[in-house]
Amino acid sequence: MESEVMKVVLDGVILNRHSFSLAAQGEFSQGIHLVSGAVGSGKSTLALAIAGIFPPEQGMISRPGIDSVMISMQFPEYHVTGMTLQEECTSWGCKPEKIFSSPDFFTKKHQSPFAISRGELKQFHLSCILEKHYDLLIFDEPFSSLDCESKQRFCQRLSQQKKGVTILFTHEETFLPRIDRIWEIINGVLHDRGAPPEAISQWSGAPPHIKKLIGQGKTPKNISFDDVLEAACRT
Amino acid sequence: MIEIRDLRYRTLHIDYIDIPEGITTIIGKNGSGKTTLLRLCAGITVPESGTILIDRTPPRQTTTGWVNEFPDRNMLFSKVYDEISSPLRFGHVAPDTADCEVRNIANRSGISHLLSRRVYDLSGGEKVLVALAAALATHPKILILDEYDSHLDREHCDRIEHLLRDSGCDYILRCTQQMETAAGSDTILMFDEGKLVHAGHPADVFSYLKETGYYPFSWRVRL
Q1: Could you say which of B29, B69, B223 has the minimum Cβ distance to residue A149?
Q2: What is the pTM of this model?
Q3: Could you say which of B119, B139, B159 is where a domain stops?
Q4: How many domains does chain B have?
Q5: Read out DSSP for A72-87?
């Protein structure tokens, strides 16, 4: 039997939470999607809704072809269940020898997750998630607390994903992976800007340096660090 | 001047540094000691040995505003208005004066519309803005911000940058992973494994970092 194509479908979705309402319509197909939006625009709520944790007020969210879902929440401490990093690693179903082969964690396996810095905890949390395959991966602000080198490493790891739907909700401006589609939330509505490079000039929340490049007629092919650097170096 | 001498705390070792007035940004890898130094300067923790003096006064005798990297941990009260007014109430400021201060700082921070909201219902970025407003309400001598911008969009970052410049605080100490933000500081300190490796004006510090991801992108491409 032919397997169903993986995607997330938002059909007439209305999310209401506190003082905002968000309308969302569209399909997230296989690949990496970037969702941007102002503080408080509903990104985290949409992430929870797509993960199936927060029910929409109206409409339907379906996930045909998707058997496994993982959401990485904005604050990594929300995920902690183990007393030590080793226990934490095991709770994610990861092999400790793989996670602790990294020099960043090699000496820390018996430490409490709360005894390391938040950036280190975020690195650890993302490593555990990326160690396994999920059909649908949702990252809410994955770059927050990460140092510049870790952000670059995370982008590299994401670009190695061969299949599945990956959705990034982020404010990050400099270190981004090459993505397949850009979405943004404006005035309570989710807008599908399409695929790069065309989508980049439609992206009203683009980082200032990308907007400057567009103004100079140097629209990047994509939004990764290397793509933007290539555009900036064009003569 | 903030004078740090022979400071030892866990893995953090600083032999000598003088930090001038203005905005100082601490950068470095995760786990390099940035938050530890901020906590010591705020007086939240005390050094195992050595001294920190802020204009010749120990941190615990200096009025300090603190914005934690965990926004939820900043919150003592359930309503935004009560949270921002709490340092004024604890300082026995008259209710009318406190009310004016709260509305003024909320307006300058762009969060007047949140005053009646429950803090636990706010987004991560909104919580940071509330924490910052509460920290500034008492006009502290030193304001300390621990990765406050990792939850904020560009518009809010720019707004806060103006707010910090107009805050009247003699010293603003912060850490960030946004190098474009760091580039706008008066002084940068870079740490690696608990040691201070570079200190000075952004142009000087970043001149050592051209081959790394820490070099500001806008400087790299001269936009």
Answers
A1: B29
A2: 0.87
A3: B139
A4: 2
A5: E-SSGGGG---SSHHH
